[in-house]
Amino acid sequence: MSSPGSRPVSPAAASQLNLRGAVDLSTLRRPAPTPSGGTPAASAEGNANGQPLRVDATEGNFQDLVQLSAQVPVLFLLWSQRSLEAADLLRGLEAVVDSYAGKIVLAAADIDAFPQLAQAFQIQAIPTAVAVLKGQPVPLFEGPASDPEIRSLIDELLKVAEANGVTGSIGGGAPSGEAPPLPPLHQAAFDAIEAGDYAAAAAAYRQALAEKPADADAKAGLAQVELMGRLESLTAPDAEALRQKAAQEPDNVDVQLGVADLDISGGHIEDAFNRIIAFIGRNFGPARETARVRLLELFDVVGISDERVAKARQGLARVLF
User: Fold this and answer.
1) To 5 degrees, how large is the angle CA 174–CA 180–CA 183?
2) Containing H/E element for 225?
3) How far is it, in rounded angstroms, from Cα 273 to Cα 275?
4) N or C: which end of the chain has fewer CB atoms below 10 A?
């Protein structure tokens, strides 16, 4: 597929990005061993001397690239060798990205070899460019784009990265080449997430909140890992059965909240919010309060500045008052 023209994210929209809730990348999580040939950071640094900062994204190194996005933005170009337009764009992107001296890394993902990534990013055209920043996707454009358009988008992306504390570089001039260290409890939570131990991650975030109740990052992190923990053992047949039960039992709070979790993880944010708000509007007592509390937690997962959260808050106020 191809698009008749590029559809970039506007600078105004880019400046409002909250970096949460766009696409569930955890479905592409892989076991921890490092792939042969080094980490993406090592591969990119090895190419930094006169070569484009390009990495070929694969299922094997995808999680390493997501981790790298805490240090520098990673620009994924989803392309196909079957598309001459995509191949031309990839060559142009290599030159543009190289000119940023390690402030951004290009990850070329051939969707014929790595179709799961196309599904995760929910792409509609080939080629499509999506940046990942601090582990969260930022749509850039689909179809062809000129060098000036690409540069404008990268400039805006780097502003968003700086606003979110992502200011490193790869082989290009940062003294340590490393992102600033996380607070100890946040690092403990991150390490637990990488190990797939969501209970331990939640415990670390709870301790961080006990020490600093206003720690917004810990609050959001706790909501996210609790969601991941609830979904961890849910198989596809289980999920389908849960949806069927929800249709049959609209006032079963556990079932309705379970389907809302599924919708959030799949990027169907408004569906999840509307489901819980409708439940709150129909019910009273402890079940209503349980649903209200869960909805507030999911607001933290998506990001409190997200316009969908603002809209859902209005809907919640209407059914409560």
Assistant:
1) 175
2) helix 216-231
3) 5
4) C
Beginning with the edge strand found earlier in the chain, give each strand of the sheet holding 105-110 in spatial order.
Answer: 54-56, 105-110, 74-79, 128-133, 136-142
pLDDT > 70: percent of the chain: 81
When pLDDT is cut at 50, 70 and 90, the band that residue 171 belongs to is low
Rounded CA-CA distance 167/178 in Å is 9
**What is the Cα–Cα distance from 202 to 220, expressed in whole angstroms?**
11
Is residue 156 left, alpha or beta, with left meaning phi > 0 and alpha meaning psi from -120 to 50? alpha
One-letter-per-residue 3-state SS of 10-49: CHHHHHCCCCCCCCCCHHHCCCCCCCCCCCHHHHHHHCCC
Q: List Cα–Cα distances, 171 to 22, 41, 212, in angstroms.
A: 30, 9, 36
* pLDDT of the residue at 36: 31
Pairing of strands 105-110, 74-79: parallel
Closest CA to 90 of 157, 43, 145: 145
107: which strand partners?
55, 76
- Select the more confidently predicted residue: 315 or 58: 315
Q: Where are the beta strands (DSSP E) in the chain?
A: 54-56, 74-79, 105-110, 128-133, 136-142
Q: What is the mean pLDDT of residues 44-67?
A: 67
Reading the block at residue 90, the tokens are 């990839």
Q: What is the dihedral of CA 191, 197, 201, 202, to 10 degrees?
A: 170
- The pLDDT confidence band at residue 180, using thresholds 50, 70 and 90, is low
The whole-angstrom separation of Cα 100 and Cα 154 is 9
Which two structure tokens, joined as six digits, stand for 291?
Answer: 């649903």
Mean pLDDT, all residues of the chain: 79
The predicted pLDDT at position 3 comes to 36
Chain center to CA of 296: 20
CA-wise closest residue to 146 among 88, 105, 99, 80: 88
